[in-house]
Amino acid sequence: MARKFYTVLNISGLALAMACAILLYAYISYHLSFDRYHKDGSRTFRLVYELHLDKTEYDKGASLAMLNALKAELPQVEKAAFLISGQSFIVDAGDHKRFREEKTIAFADNKWFSLFNYQWLKGSPVMLQKPNTTVITQAYARKYFGDVNPMGSVLNIKNTPLTVVGVLADRPHNTDLKSEIYVSMETCANLFPDYKDWFTQWGYMSSTYNAFITLHNPNQKASVEAAIAKMIKIHLGNDANKYYTFKLLPLQEIHFDSRYGGPVQKSMLTILAVIGVLIIVIAGINYVNMMVAQQARRSIEIGTRKVLGASTGQLFMQLITESVLTMAFSAAAAIILAAALMPLADSLLFAGQGIAITSYTSVGLFVLATMFFMVAFTGIYPAVFLSRVTVSKALKSKFYGIEAGVGRKVMVVLQNVIAQVLIACTIIIVMQVNFLKNTDKGFDRNMVITVPLGTSTVLQKQQLSQSLSRLNEVKSFSFCHKAPSSDSQRGGTVQFNSRQDWEKWPARFAIGDSAYCRTFGLKVIAGKNITANPITPEFLINEKMVSMLHVKNMQDVIGKPLTAGDTKGVIAGVVKDFNVKSLIEPIEPSILLEVNSLQTNLAIKLSGHHTEETLNELQKVYGTIFSDQVFTYQFVDEEIARLYKSEILQQKLIWGAAMLAIIISSLGLLGLISIITLQRTKEIGIRKVLGASVGQVSMLLSADFLKMVVIAMLIATPISWLIMNKWIQGFAYRIQIHWWVFALAGGAAVIIALLTVSSQAVKAALANPVNSLRSE
Predict the structure, then answer these.
(1) Three state DSSP letters for 643-671
(2) CB 323, CB 386: distance < 8 Å
(3) For residues 417 and 407, what is the distance between their CA atoms, to the nearest angstrom?
(4) How far apart, in Å, are the Cα atoms of 165 and each of 62, 82, 168, 400, 429?
């Protein structure tokens, strides 16, 4: 019965560790597979650039004019393709079906589909050369038209009918090219008649512009970059190379380069791989400890087999075979457990887009490799140790490894160090992420929602303003582009007062109106707020910008002329510093200005009372005024939380790893205390007969384990501090790491160990000593 208990403990710990390793392998291999399925992927590059000002800015956009010139003038370029992605529109699909599509629409031509691999279910790329045509994915064909053949059907965008000329198979999950609706590039002239310069001017660059080229030879990358530098001087001026450096970013690196919007860093994948190995090591340590300790109970069996002629090699093979069978059962259980947990892990940890099996063969090979690694790591030492024990020691049950126990203690300390480091890291990451999510620099986002408006007329804005003013629960509202802290990258260089030169640093733009400050709680500390509908455009600048302009007194900037990008106006006032990006980055010089064409959202400050009823009223008002739109809303605090998606993911993963490490360590401690209790049955009985109390016996059995956990805490604390102190330096705004964090992590480990060990220690201490002595 005892051996079954230990076997279950062994398999449980190993299965948990292997299941964790399988999930982490699936996650890592999934992200490493991004956009590697394209036929010419190894020769395909995206045009990106660095803008060298006071600090280097990075952007992934390039102009169509530049791309066309590269294809025409550089023999190294085999193919070139351009895509305007991330577009949002209201789509009418007929039969009163209307959808708000957020960043799922792109403009492309047939060249895009010759450069990248797409599976065409209906139609062909050549059909997309005509204006007012579109290609949609299979999922969107079902969404709009059900089971009806969509070919020849019509979608309407901005009162422009688009004929469906093709259907694509749903895109794979492992791609960053994620559009669902492709509108012909020729349609842009109809949808945007005022933006013809998009296609002819080199300076029209945007992060939504995707310019890709395929080279005849990937080794020509450097020569093409050098050729681009020469072309820049011709088309953007002799000084352009001082500011712009264009580069070719390999297609397979797009997913990992955060400078250009890559969502995952390879360093993160490396950390996860290390965590997976550490979890496996913890489970392996458990197995080795329990094998050596448990096999002491088999001394008579081993001694007898040696007396009957069994060789050391035969005993070694028997013990290795047992290890292989244990690992095989553990691997089978791990596969079942991983398959059962994968949907839950994908939903809770990765927001529905983190894990997808790219190859079941590779997963199977990984499981086999892990299993054999575990056999080598955990099976060889116990098998060699036990098979070489002499007959006399075996028959006398004198297993020197158990008495000395140095190796066992070192391994217990090691696994507790790993667990405590993970606990401490989890606590610090949770504190930092909560600080980022709940701290606002210079504005108030509590109970503020944003409602997309799209393009709205002056009359519609007036009607909406009148209706909102009559709602008691609406405290304030503003027509704007985004909340102060967002993923918007709008900005540019500025020219202040009568200075001849433009500043060498960029300013960030917040687009709003005169109610923006009131809605988001921005504090005007000098001058006045911008005026509604001024004759001359007015700006509010933050304190950081005053400092960057080298003006000592804030009052000295009031009323002074300022050119921000293409807008010329005057500075009306100064606001307290506010952050236009996440708190990962420091506050930058920022400008609040009013640009009617960019006021595509409505920000509404609610009172917080009767919120559901107020939202229903807002929907009615919105539907009456914007009959051609779809009402949706988003709380600003939820939008801001998305800025820290990567940090939140790290928090969840480290937390999960810490919990798993604790569980596996606890299983190991439970097994060890059980074995040691059995080995000391006679000693416990004698001590109780001599008057030892339950507490004294429990402390006798628990003391060694608690000492090892405390030693682990002393080792884990400096390691945790070094790791997290380096990690936290990456944030402009960060928490202070206090000593109590490590005390809490160590204390938690001690309490968990104490609860685990004491359960068996108390049970042994309460046992009848007569039965213990009789059994011996």
Answers:
(1) CCHHHHHHHHHHHHHHHHHHHHHHHHHHH
(2) no
(3) 15
(4) 28, 20, 10, 79, 49
pLDDT above 70: residue 300: no
Mean pLDDT in residue range 236-253: 85
Residue type for 479, please? F
Domain for residue 431, yes or no?
no
In a domain, 320, yes or no: no
Look at residue 195 in the predicted model and tell me its pLDDT.
66
What are the residues whose beta carbons fall under 8 Å from the beta carbon of 477, sequence distance 6 or more? 465, 468, 515, 519, 602, 603, 604, 605
CA distance 173 to 98: 26
Rounded to 5 degrees, φ, ψ at 166 are: -170, 155
**Which tokens hold the place of 169?**
């198979």
Whether the pLDDT of residue 351 is over 70: the answer is no
Report the alpha-carbon distance of residue 503 to residue 550 in Å, rounded: 11
Cα-only R_g, the chain:
33
Q: Residue 81 forms beta bridges with which residues?
A: 212
Please state the φ and ψ torsions of residue 223, each to the nearest 5 degrees.
-70, -35
- Rounded to the nearest 5°, which phi and psi values hold at 447? 60, 40
Q: Where among 200, 235, 260 does a domain terminate?
A: 260
Residue owning tokens 């956990």: 709
Question: Residue 359: what are its φ and ψ, rounded to 5°?
Answer: -155, 115
Nearest of 307, 315, 309 to residue 382 by alpha carbon: 315
Within-domain flag for 719: no
User: What is the reported pLDDT for 217?
Assistant: 94
Q: Is the pLDDT of residue 596 over 80?
A: yes
What are the tokens at 334?
């791990």
Task: Give me the helices (H) in 146-265, please.
Answer: 188-191, 221-236, 240-243
Q: Give the residue-averaged pLDDT of 381-409.
A: 55
Extract the tokens encoding 770: 């007569």
Number of domains in the chain: 2
pLDDT of residue 679: 62
CA 340 to chain centre: 22
Q: What phi-psi label fits residue 559: left (phi over 0), alpha (psi between -120 and 50 degrees) or beta?
A: left
pTM over 0.90: no
Please give the span between the terminal C-alpha atoms of the chain, in angstroms, as a whole number. Answer: 18
Task: List C-alpha distances in Å: 136 to 91, 109, 116, 677.
Answer: 12, 13, 16, 68
Q: How far is CA 489 from CA 112, 153, 441, in A?
A: 26, 37, 18
Question: Could you tell me if 601 and 480 are in contact, meaning their C-beta atoms sit under 8 angstroms apart?
Answer: yes
Q: Domain for residue 302, yes or no?
A: no
Residues contacting residue 148 through CB under 8 Å, at least 6 positions apart: none
The Cα 521–Cα 192 span in angstroms is 35
Phi, psi at 577, each rounded to 5°: -50, 135
CA–CA gap between residue 327 and residue 288 (Å, rounded):
13
- Distance separating alpha carbons of residues 85 and 211, to the nearest angstrom: 11
d(CA 15, CA 370): 11
Is the pLDDT at 403 greater than 50? The verdict is no
Q: For the chain, how many residues are written? A: 776
Helix (H) or strand (E) holding 29: helix 2-32
User: d(Cα 219, Cα 281) in Å, to the nearest integer?
Assistant: 41
- Phi, psi of 107, rounded to the nearest 5 degrees: -105, 130
| C-alpha–C-alpha distance, residues 329 and 346, integer Å | 25
Tell me the average pLDDT across 484-493: 79
Residue 541 has pLDDT above 90, yes or no: yes
Domain boundary among 594, 620, 642: 642
Neighbours of 266 (CB within 10 A): 15
pLDDT digits (tens, 9 = 90+) for 412-433: 888 888 888 888 888 888 888 8
Q: Which two tokens stand for residue 661?
A: 């490490």
DSSP at 523: P
d(CA 475, CA 631): 20
* Residue 201: domain span: 41-260
Residue type, 191: L
The secondary element (H helix, E strand) that includes residue 390 is none
